Amino acid sequence: MTTDGPRPEQDPVLVRRAQMSRLASTGNRIGYACVAVSVVAFFVGLSAGYEVWGRVVVVALAASALTLAPAIVLGYAVKAADREDRSRRLP
Fold it and tell me: Does 3 reside within a domain?
């Protein structure tokens, strides 16, 4: 029996790329959730005061920057690798 190429579950590069894709997706979810928390905390602080809520806004925005930046770059890297494989007609 012949195959057209390595199967995804047998190719360690494709397995690692799938892991990196899941990591990027998780990082995006966490980062955007932190942005949502900061927006909610901002509006709560607007009515309740910023003694505590101001810190929540700053911490949530810092956490979003720390998670979103690498996740976005990693996501673009995975997509670029997939495009390169398709352009070379690799599975």
Answer: no
